[in-house]
């Protein structure tokens, strides 16, 4: 097994985030197999056993190198989160970079703190996957709430849409069954009441956003999240695509881009 110091040195050599993207690289995540094809059985505190996707490494295998690096990411983001206490959006240049894995594991890390109450929101209409990582139903969810709550209030709508993850202090709001584009969600009259309620109910909110396909997407994401974290897959993501997306994201407000995560670094302690 290669040490984390060697993995960090390899990431330094690539310098995707530091030199090419002009954004700090907050952490390096060792390679691990992603997807929901294989699940691991875990027993959350005070609940029955349930199937958890094995990408939730910070909960399933606490001592794994990837788990330690996700905890480092949580600490690195503490300074930003402490200043803004806002919504953190996780995005990427392309699909398959590991956005959902990063969002879910960051939520798990933050939920380890006893005074926190964390909400994970799936905001990716094209490929909603967050709920399945926790073996939860995918609807109703965000799209139904912002299309107009059937019960007449945000609080009542959230009761049926937000689900306990099975991990203490961590809840999940799935995307839902309506394929509503991000721009349309933002136009909803229920958007601001939703954010105001969540600000009171949760100490931390993480959004699993779609990839940044256009500059219009970047503008929409800037309105949806107070800070944006870019996930870059080591060895496969085109640097020009990353730089272009970072320019789009920074065009509205440069400081909204918190940093980058270099994901799936080979030879740094793969998850068995």
* Average pLDDT rating: 77
The number of distinct helices, counting runs of at least 4 residues, comes to: 13
Q: Name the shape in a single word.
A: globular
CATH structural class? Alpha Beta
Q: What is the C-alpha radius of gyration, as a whole number of Å?
A: 18 Å
List how many beta strands DSSP finds.
10
Low-confidence stretches: 1-23, 33-49, 268-272
Number of domains: 1
The largest sheet has its strands arranged as: 1-10-9-4-8-5-7-6
Helicity level, as a percent range? 40-55%
Give the CATH architecture. 3-Layer(aba) Sandwich
What kind of sheet is the major sheet? Answer: 8 strands, mixed
Percent of sequence in beta strands: 15-25%
Question: What order do the SSEs take from the amino end to the carboxyl end, as H and E?
Answer: HHEEEHHHEHEHHHEEHHEHEHE
Description:
The chain has 272 residues and is of the alpha/beta class. It has one domain: P-loop containing nucleotide triphosphate hydrolases (Rossmann fold, 3-Layer(aba) Sandwich), CATH 3.40.50. It contains 13 helices and 10 strands.
